[in-house]
Write a structure and sequence with these properties.
364 residues; alpha+beta; eight-stranded antiparallel sheet; six-stranded antiparallel barrel; 7 helices; 34% helix; 32% strand
Length: 364
């Protein structure tokens, strides 16, 4: 695995380096407390407490998880924080009950223990704030969400970008979108670098399907090469203070895009522009749209009517193909996504969607 450190947000790198340093700091601090030379390594290790070993091991694993963008890195950080804060609370509680606590033969006073808990809480809180903020940014893989917390959905949104001086530009459709950023394909000769600011024009839709465009400042936070040699870019969005209306339009659009989706595996028949019947499998569905796995992939913007086979009867819906994915890219099988415009039996459709909330009814 190739690690490209300079494509990482600085807070993530700093936190990673901090956790890498914890085992070495444990050794150095223990040696200082017991007035031991670092040459007496075995004696130093014998003085290290079991909890210190646990925290040192967790720190090393956390650092690895953060730098390789794994979920367990963030979750172990939460466990690490819980252990440290619990231990600090226990120490404060113990001294308030009159228990005396010693470290290397020296009694630790109550004020020192409380001060240690406050500074530790503030430090870990700061780390949590920056980690949580940065992992929501779209610098991780578009195929696997890694350990980001912000929701992200595969959805094609037409866009136009220009660089800061307006000398370079490009068009396309987003691969996926979130509240903080988007993942976009790049043209062959884009000359963009990580950290470059760009201006984006996003072509959205209002609730009544009326088209609306918004402009927003953005920054390239990562550039990845695909298997076919093409490149994709993670772009972080920055709405200005005076762009309240644009932000509201974007968030209202996302609210429809992020309508709860439920995994299913229902057989479907669908009709293209030639009125020929094709077969496929419905993979996920929401009140706003659905995704069909099939080898007979329809073109984008094509009108499509779909008949979903369920135990309660067939449900017919109509809509527009918003995403055509014949090559099965970005973690989805070959197929296409439809934006639902018409529903033949709305009540039956809504009841069937409601059933998908419960795993017992998933599938049929």
């Amino acid at each position: 695995m190739t690690l490209r450190f300079f494509n990482y947000p600085i807070p993530v790198l700093l936190v990673t380096l901090g956790f890498l340093a914890v085992p070495f700091l444990n050794v150095y601090i223990t040696a200082s407390l017991y007035d031991l030379d670092l040459d007496h390594f075995g004696m130093i290790l014998s003085r290290i407490q079991p909890l210190q070993y646990v925290l040192s091991g967790l720190s090393a694993i956390i650092a690895y998880g953060l730098v390789t963008k794994k979920k367990f890195g963030y979750y172990l950080f939460l466990c690490f924080t819980f252990l440290v804060l619990t231990y600090n609370v226990w120490m404060v509680f113990s001294v308030t009950l009159g228990k005396k606590i010693f470290l290397a033969g020296i009694r630790i006073h109550t004020a020192d223990i409380i001060w240690n808990m406050v500074t530790t809480t503030l430090l870990l809180g700061t780390v949590f704030y920056f980690l949580r903020r940065e992992i929501a940014a779209p610098y991780l893989s578009g195929i696997r969400r890694g350990w980001r917390t912000k929701y992200r959905e595969t959805h094609p949104v037409p866009f136009h970008w220009t660089n800061a001086d307006g000398e370079r530009e490009g068009d396309g459709q987003t691969i996926n979108i979130s509240r903080n950023g988007i993942l976009i394909p790049l043209p062959t000769h884009h000359f963009l670098n990580v950290g470059d600011p760009i201006n984006l024009l996003l072509k959205l839709e209002k609730e009544n399907r009326e088209p609306v465009s918004i402009s927003v400042h953005a920054k390239i936070v990562r550039i990845d090469e695909e298997n076919d040699g093409s490149e994709i870019a993670g772009v972080q969005l920055f709405f200005q203070i005076n762009q309240k209306e644009e932000k509201q339009i974007y968030e209202a659009f996302l609210a429809r895009v992020f309508a709860p989706r439920y995994p299913v595996s229902n057989p479907v028949n669908f009709f293209g522009k030639d009125n020929k019947i094709y077969q496929g499998t419905l993979l996920n569905v929401s009140l706003e749209g659905l995704y069909i796995e099939t080898n007979s992939v329809l073109d984008q913007d094509q009108i499509c009517n779909v008949k979903i086979q369920t135990r309660s009867g067939d449900i017919s819906v109509g809509g527009v193909v918003r995403w055509s994915n014949p090559q099965g890219k970005y973690g989805k099988p070959s197929g296409f996504g439809i934006q639902i415009d018409t529903i033949e039996n709305k009540n039956l459709f809504r009841i069937w969607i409601w059933k998908q909330r419960f795993k017992l009814f998933h599938g049929r």
